Amino acid sequence: MKSRFVSGIVAGSLVGATAGMYAITRMSPRQRRRMMRVSKKVMSNIIDNISLF
Asked: How many helices and strands (H and E) does the chain possess?
């Protein structure tokens, strides 16, 4: 059960990263900068939440 869960997380993150890279290549430079700011905030929130556990 746990190995299936972990493999699902890995596969999902790979698909998400691929879709994100494709989306970034289709954006204008201004949109790209805005997305980078938003993604930095999201990543910092995720890291803060992980440290709570």
From this structure: 2, 0
